[in-house]
Amino acid sequence: MEKIIYFDYAAEAIYGLLIISCVVRKMLKGRLNRSFFFMILVGFCATFFDIMCIALDNAGRGNYVAWQYFFHTGYLFFHTFTLPIYLIFIIELTGTRFRSLANPTYKILMSIPFEAEIFILVLNLVNHSVFRISESGEYIREKLFVLNYLIALFYLVACMIHLIRYRKTVSIGKFFSLFSLFPIVFIAIVIQFLFPYVVIELFACSICYLYNALIITKPEEMVDPITGLMRVSVYSDRLNRSKITKGSFTIIMIELSNYRSLQRALGYEAGKTLLGLVAEHLSAICREENLKDPDLYYLENGEFRVVVPASERPVVLQTAKKIKQSLSEGFEFREVEISVLANVCILNWPEDINDARSELLFENRLLESQYHTDVMFAKEVMRQSNFDILKSIDYLIEDALKSHKFEVYYQPIYSIGDKKFTAAEALLRLNTEEFGFVSPDIFIPAAEQSGAIHRIGHYVLEEVCRFIAEDGFKDLEIECIDVNLSTIQCLEKNLAREIAMILGNYSVQPSQINLEITETATAFGQSEMDANIENLSARGFSFSLDDYGTGYSNISRAINMPLSVIKLDKSITRVERNTKLYSIGENTVRMIKDMNMKIVAEGIEDKKTLQLFEEMGCDYIQGFYFSKPLPKDEFIRFIKEHKGKEPVGKDYTE
What we know:
Blueprint: H1 6-24, H2 31-59, H3 65-94, H4 97-100, H5 104-127, E1 131-133, E2 139-141, H6 146-165, H7 172-179, H8 181-194, H9 201-215, H10 219-222, H11 232-245, E3 249-256, H12 259-266, H13 268-288, E4 295-298, E5 303-309, H14 313-329, E6 331-333, E7 336-338, E8 342-349, H15 356-368, E9 376-377, H16 378-384, H17 387-403, E10 406-415, E11 420-432, E12 436-438, H18 440-450, H19 453-468, E13 480-485, H20 487-490, H21 495-505, E14 513-518, H22 519-522, H23 527-538, E15 542-548, H24 555-559, E16 565-568, H25 570-573, H26 579-594, E17 598-601, H27 607-616, E18 620-621, E19 630-631, H28 632-641
Parallel strand pairs: 8-9, 11-13, 13-14, 14-15, 15-16, 16-17, 17-18
Antiparallel strand pairs: 1-2, 3-5, 3-8, 4-5, 6-7, 10-11, 10-18, 10-19, 11-12
């Protein structure tokens, strides 16, 4: 009985459509996409050779013997190659290439059966020990044909073991999509065994590949359309999988420092073109340096990553230097030479960092870094940026809130007119068992990102109110205490009601609390913030603008806010170190005084600077010249010691 060839025709059509789809959908970049493409290509070739085999076998006796040997040999070769290439696809998808294919023993073990298949197929052309074509043109299997089944079984088991072993590296949907090949093909083989004339095995494989194409390989989710590089989601998946697979590799992190400036100057469309040029440039450098198996990613906002196996570490520094140098040399873009400033950092995984969350945290620190002319190393950057603390900061904040480990310090504020301390600023401090003193510059931004800043703000206000409510507070003759409101707090919907509730619990008057908002906050034209400030002002709270002069100045917006005090940042008050600053400080003070607002000069560290700002007409002085921020008990003692007499400070620089 002649074999039915229609299933092969259907399979060939499916493979052909998948090949066209891969090309049209740009699925040829990245090892995973390439392995999937080659897998389809092998299936296409196997089906083509099978169609030719069946056609020649059905033709019967003729002058086709040589062609029959050629096509049957080709079919067995591609048919056997189907499972090894499927194994490679599974390895790429599970992110275990560095653990598997980089292992010489594993590579040899996996390649021996396939090499044996090639050997027996070549040998068959001489002694016909695998199959032969009879004089009548009939295809006849010989004794060694069973080796084809054994080799296929070997790779089938290898695929199943690898997929089951690393099942946690893929989603449940992808796992079942990959695993579906085995039972479907097994059923097809059984059907084909029971009904030899029904050639259905390759059709079953094509259906599985089509299913994988729909479920697993989605280029729109994997490949960035602007750069053609892998997306951030693929990068993140790889980092997450590496903890399971124990992968070891090196990441060259490229952050375009002037990307936003270039995008604003060039425009959105031109900015996209520039990103494409940078991506092509990085790919070209990797080829020039002969990097083995580099993976390139674009994480958006001008962030690129080059990931290479640990075996390539000896040449990574040279590659990173070339990337940095070539980017700084610039591109010819629209008849203009554009220089791209990039911070380049080398991170060894897992020696430097071994989890995706910490890597993301490190990315944020790297983005905040100033431009460096040299290639940086993650270890050094982490040391300088207190990275060990940053990794644990969320836990430290939660623990401090639950266990009341936060402590409120108070820095005295000196009134020039009254010649005494009339106010103080409440400042939060954190001292941990693991890391000792943790700077507010570290835990405040982290708290803003995590949302803990709301609870921290309430904690500080409650501690201040508790202090004001104490019996001995009146004797200190402190008129009010400044409490900082973060930008995030200012956007809180029920801020005014919650602040009023805390004050009510301790019978504290709004006039005893001065709320400080940073200059950064005034840059936000949020209606919620404006409503909160108006509501609090109507309840009797006074406001001061903190850190004036840090670069976010929006004086027109500040004029329209109910501010009574402006606090000059130390970047302005350090006039003794820069003569030009004196003129800036003098004109700033004059302008603020013309708006009938009080002025606090912050960061005063010596008598000379104190006298300069006193002559300019400042109302209050705050800084180390009089006192550092003090714990509550020390603050009380300090105020009592200076009560009734004009305080004498001490130059902090001495």
